[in-house]
From TrEMBL:
The keyword Cell membrane does not apply. One of its GO terms (cellular component) is ATP-binding cassette (ABC) transporter complex. GO terms for biological process: peptide transport. It comes from Planomonospora venezuelensis. SUPFAM superfamilies: Periplasmic binding protein-like II. The keyword Translocase does not apply. Residues 97-461 form the Solute-binding protein family domain. Residues 1-24 form the signal peptide. CDD domains: PBP2_NikA_DppA_OppA_like (cd00995). Keywords: Signal, Transport. This is Peptide/nickel transport system substrate-binding protein.
Amino acid sequence: MTRPRLAALAAVLAGACTLAACSAAPGSGGPAAEQAVAPTVTTSVPAPTRDVDAVTWNLATGEPATLDPSMAGVESISTIVANMCEGLFTLGPDYRLQPALATGFTHPDPLTYVIGLREGATFWDGEPVTAEDVVYSVRRILDPELGSSWIGWAVNLDTIEATGDGEITVKLKKPDVMVPNFFAMPSFFVVQKAFAEAAGRDFGTAKSGVMCTGPYKYGSWTQGQDITLTRNDAWWNTAVKPRIKDLRFTFVADPSAQTAALASGDVDGQFIVPRAAHEQLAAKGNMLFGTSLSPTFLAVLNPDGALSDPATRQALQALIDYKGIIGSVYRGTAQPLRALVPPAAWGYGKEIFQAEYDRLPEPVQDLEKAKALVGRSARAKEKIVLAYLTASEEETRIATAIADAATQAGMTIELKPLTGEQFGAVFAAPQARAGLDLFLVTGYLDFPEPLSYYQFFTSGSFYNFPGYENKEYDTAILTAMTTEDPDARAREVAKAQSIMAEDLINIPIATQYVNVYYGPELTGLVPRQSYLNTPWATTLGGK
């Protein structure tokens, strides 16, 4: 679901030195910042013209723990499962809903969605997809014991029932405009009830595999080595012919080893390519970039102490070397952010969002302003503990740069590196946040609906870690959640965005581009954030 995805944080990305060492003096716009050139955004590529027997694709974030679609909130799982399992709808190139296992839905009143299922769709074993399978799949995810993060979509769910042989009906307790987006997410990915029940706890493991309906069938899983998928030639979607027969996934996590495998052709492609390898690989094959729905930001964890004073948060915003981060850390493959949700995630009301976004202050380093704010605030001089994911070279460099700039401004930031396990615990357990004041986060939205992130900061939300409360903010978000008119909803969300920007409950830093590399003999794949939930391999094939 739309939440701070941990997947984007797990990649270990190459970098030769820290930002402080690579860039010129903070705010000087020195050589490192100037040399970075924003990449060309790819929106289309030539379609494939020939079939390919086999493609090897590497998972930059390592081997998945499972292939259970209910757990597809982690990049290593999502990247594979998106090619095997399907929802009732899928996302098109413009992120709009397109029919998949459903042919459409009606919305007879604000609390009801009636979904018509596709006739003739079958699982890989030839058994037909039934309304019972669909309802079972959704209810399975709603079981708290399963531990699926996708359960969050159903906060306003009343019932989901089969109301005919080819029909299911979703009833809500109160209106929620975000619900239809989840029809295309793993929250509605359909698995075969009989297979899942027979597999029990082994469902999704190397022992059992899965049973879905998508364009690629589960083949084999040699743990520690690879996972193979095979084209499903009985796929219901005859309008799309996958060109790749066999798809093999490897799990190389070391950036240097990834680069070597891609450059040699031992691996044909990969998402999240190490930045140090971009230029080298661009000379060999297709090194492509696309706009993303991903923000990197500082999140307040502790509402007391130093960060309880707005002057402290304002000083932090002023001391960040945005230009240096974009140029030196991201090497030009990112853009600075004025608000938490990046512009690419404005799925409606774009003119309204743009006008309000332009009114927000441009993110520019101003050390003198930071020093002045610190000079007027006793709280700003107190120690701030900043946590970040140590496995991410980029996050390490950004955190180090922020701490160095804070010292120049008269502040004290203590860095707290976290392992992947510790990092994940911060999102799940209050005790894991004890002693932490600030958190460097990279996440992404699953679909272009700004509400999906801004709702996290309403009073009482699970992800509202600092206990932020602003009645005006809550009212704007709750009004937007029940407003179906796009422009009216955009005005409410933009209002909440401005309130958040003033209160600085989080400090946006940048939005990174999606990137992908594949060899010169391949074509068809356009980099989009939706690769995590749509069958991206069906677009790839030979030139």
